[in-house]
Amino acid sequence: MKEPVWDVHNVVAGIDGSDQSRHAATVSADIARKNGATLHLVTIVRPPEGWWGIVGSPPTPSALSKSLTDAQREILDSVVAELDLREIEVIQVEDVGDPARMLLEYADKVDADVMVIGRRGAGLIERIMLGSVANRVVHDAQCPVLLVP
Ligand SMILES: Nc1ncnc2c1ncn2[C@@H]1O[C@H](COP(=O)(O)OP(=O)(O)OP(=O)(O)O)[C@@H](O)[C@H]1O
Ligand SMILES: [Mg+2]
Fold first, then answer.
1. 4 located within any domain
2. Does ligand 1 come within 6 angstroms of the Cβ of 14?
3. Residue 110: CB within 6 Å of ligand 1?
């Protein structure tokens, strides 16, 4: 018999607090449970405009205003609290930087078998198209991407 071509060991979900990302969290948890996979819930704090160019590298979490990282932590905690995580190995990740780039790098690092993200996110602009993070992830990911509404 042929080897299965899609074995799911690592599921990465992008969490930004939006309803779509909550949906992504639920879907990713189900995928992880049904496959005995590790669930990686990743939230990225986008540094305030202007923090980049000048110093050339992203600020460390401690250099960021505490309220920003605290707020993101709360977002992740509230999403996690709503999930049924029984029987799932869960890794929560909070990092600072450009969300799309960081999500892509993280997925590569853990050899993700699927990334689950919302079509849109917490951005305030009403869109008919994909959000910018979703757009970049779909274009550049090295693994299958599941977009949830
Ligand atoms: N900072 C983040 N950390 C983790 N995942 C994120 C982050 N931002 C977005 N995502 C993921 O990407 C999905 C799409 O969000 P995206 O940011 O592309 O849309 P948007 O906020 O509506 O648009 P934009 O940010 O371009 O204004 C979200 O539902 C979430 O799954
Ligand atoms: Mg966004």
1. no
2. yes
3. no
